Amino acid sequence: MYTDLPPGKIASVVTYLKMTEAPATAPAPDPSWSLERRAIPDLDWYRALFTKVGQDWLWFSRLQMSDDELRATIHHPDVDVFEFKIDGIEKGLLELDRREKPDIEIAFFGLTQDVIGTGAGKCLLAGALDLAWSHHPRAVLVHTCTLDHPRALDFYRRAGFTQYKRAIEIADDPRLDGTLPKTAAPQTPMLKT
Fold first, then answer.
1. What is the pLDDT of residues 30-82, one digit of tens each?
2. Cβ-contact 124, 94 below 8 angstroms
3. CB-based contacts of 55: which residues, under 8 Å, 6+ apart?
4. Between the chain's N and C termini, which has fewer beta carbons within 10 Å?
């Protein structure tokens, strides 16, 4: 069965995954890579890194939040924001959300386009899992969708996550209201209203 979308909308299939035991091994860390927590992230800094990492995949949710909404989320004591650096240069974003205890969610996980495929993702995920499991959750959760990198779902499964639910997300195309530039995610057709 097919369902037509009105012009101006995007749709994706979302896959929810979980890990119920900490992985036994992790890749050896590269000394040029670091994961640094931002205790109280500056909103402009956060939005800039979120865009840098996510615009190729149409990440828009945090960009459409008001300052108060974004501040309430990323400054919450159970939300941890990290920047992933290579040789001191920002190359990724990690956000862990502990608000749904006893589980912890990898709410956002991504790299800039220029380091995808270099092994940086494995390093970032190893750091994310170490941090997440240090809180002794029942499970570590993550979700990905068909708008994300085409290898994202397989990447998470190879890391030990198992899928447990799927959903369809329909939203306004963030390129049409100026949230993201019209050139973002050229692999996803933009159907104007």
1. 778 899 999 999 999 999 999 999 999 999 999 999 999 999 999 999 999 99
2. yes
3. 180, 181, 184, 185
4. N
Nearest to 114 by CA among 86, 155, 154, 148: 86
pTM (two decimals): 0.93
Chain centroid, CA 111 distance in Å: 9
What's residue 27's pLDDT? 66
Instruction: Enumerate long-range contacts of 145-149, CB under 8 Å, 24 or more apart.
Output: 145/12, 145/13, 145/14, 145/15, 145/169, 146/12, 146/13, 147/10, 147/12, 147/57, 147/58, 147/185, 147/188, 148/57, 149/57, 149/116
Cis-peptide into 189, omega within 30 deg: no
Residue with tokens 């380091």: 115
Tokens of 93: 């974003």
What token pair was written down for 151? 């290898």
CATH architecture of the domain with range 9-172: 3-Layer(aba) Sandwich (3.40)
Say how far residue 159 (Cα) sits from the centre of its chain.
16
- pLDDT single digits (tens) 151-181: 999 999 999 999 999 999 999 999 999 999 9
